[in-house]
Amino acid sequence: MASGGSNGKPPKIAAVGLKARFGSNEVVRGVDMQISERTVTAIIGPSGCGKSTLLRTLNRMHELINGATVDGEVLLDGENVYAHEVDPVLLRRRVGMVFQKPNPFPSMSIRQNVLAGLSLTGRAVRAEADAVVEKALKQAALWEEVKDRLDAPGIGLSGGQQQRLCIARALAVEPEVLLMDEPCSALDPIATARIEDLIHVLKERYTIVIVTHNMQQAARVSEHTAFMLHGDLVEFAATNKLFTQPSDRRTEDYITGKFG
Amino acid sequence: MTGHIDRNYEAQLDELRQRLMRMAAIVESMIGTAIRALVDGNVELAKETIRRDRSVNRLELEADSLCTEILARWQPVASDLRFVTIALKMVTDLERIGDLAVNICERVPDMVERPQPWDFKAIESMADVVRGMIHDAIEAFVTADTDRAQGVIDRDEEVDEIYHTMFRDLVATMKENPGTLVRDGIHVLSVAKWVERMADHSTNLAEQVVFMVKGKDVRHIGKLPDGAR
């Protein structure tokens, strides 16, 4: 099984013979991979290779699409997240997600946005709310910029700030794994650098899996990189190894820009 | 060889490859003319060889600048990254070999003032091996042939052996004629040492080719581990 340099410890999250389909179209074709706790794993590959779908199978978001199905297993701390007894909503609290386009709730203030996930799961108690907001915004490196305007609309922030607000919203429910689907593709280089810096800090506490089209970003932020092509996991290796001496010719051709 | 999708990138990598080959061709020829000038006592040929070093220096600057530009513009990875990083080192080795050829040429005007009792055969043999080493290292570079590169690395010992034998013979000859041969003996010894250094730089070139092709660093080990070829 492809392993992201497991350090002898059991993986935090693992895919076992994982297949994902849209109707009869198989877009993830039997992926095995192990992701260690508190590491950053990047998934790269051309458009349509199945990288975002693979990401979305990890917290059962793939199945929300009509006609989408999954075979195989995703193990979170060794437990199959596709087992009958698993509540997908509770699972998504443990495995949070940040999307490509910053998507704060437009009618909500900054504070309400941070608390949105908690309200839904009924965990927030009024007295705790302020502390949760401050902690999540600090973890998302946004607190200093918004602490004096927490009741302003979240949508009024810049794109980069909105994305950090979405990260704060994901962190407020205290997940264990954070999935990021091209989180910087809509951001300028400065906002991107802030998010990347944040990823380096967040990995001290969270296991992060990031899908990116930006190979330099994968090289900068991750410890392990997975290269996918046509639904297959072609290579999964230490990032430094993959970007200097890839083992597979297809990886080499893709990262050096040799696809015809 | 598969080309890059971006033809500008492909063109810049190719330009770098061409400059290295041009530099190597000049340097290889400079070794030949430097030794010819020494053996024949041809001061004009020595001067001509020294002048050609300017082209090598110019190519070094151009190749360095091209490497920096490629790194900044394209951020190469994998074999492209290995190619650009070794190119930076190869130009340095080639430029040094050119300088050593110049050193040899600079001795010629002084040595032609006196009859030279040496036949220079050993130095010519060393220089022939070195020229072959540079030629093969560059062929190995162009064709990504690690066996050929390994052959270059292995030949360094041959040069070392000729040098050591020559050193002993030279010391013996100088002892026999201490009054007249010390000055020129030192010149000849220096020339031999410079040719031996050229072989070391040629070995570096070959080691860099192995790294470019295989991603394995064989410096200070001398060869790829079994099974890695």
Task: Provide a concise account of the structure shown.
The complex is a heterodimer of chains A (260) and B (229). Chain A has 260 residues and is an alpha/beta fold.
General description of the model:
- The complex is a heterodimer of chains A (260) and B (229).
- By secondary structure, chain A is an alpha/beta fold.
- Chain A contains ten helices and eleven strands.
- By secondary structure, chain B is mostly helical.
- Chain B has six helices and no strands.
- The model of chain B has no long low-confidence stretch (mean pLDDT 93).
What key phrases describe this protein's structure?
heterodimer; A: 260 residues; alpha/beta; six-stranded mixed beta sheet; five-stranded mixed beta sheet; 25% strand; globular; B: 229 residues; mainly alpha; 6 helices; elongated
**Looking across the biggest beta sheet of chain A, what order are the strands in?**
7-8-9-4-10-11
Q: Major sheet of chain A: size, sense and barrel closure? A: 6 strands, mixed
Percent strand of chain B: under 5%
The portion of residues assigned to helices of chain A is 25-40%
How far do the termini of chain B sit from each other?
A: 19 Å
How is the quaternary structure best described? heterodimer
List unreliable stretches of 5+ residues of chain B: none
- How many helices of chain B in DSSP terms? 6
Largest interface: A-B, 16 and 15 residues
Radius of gyration of chain B: 19 Å
Integer-rounded radius of gyration of chain A? 18 Å
Q: Give the SSE string of chain A.
A: EEEEHEEHEHHHHEHEHEEHH
Low-confidence stretches of chain A: none
What class would the helix/strand composition of chain B place it in?
mainly alpha
Per DSSP, the total helix count of chain A is: 10
Structural class of chain A: alpha/beta
Order of helices and strands of chain B: HHHHHH
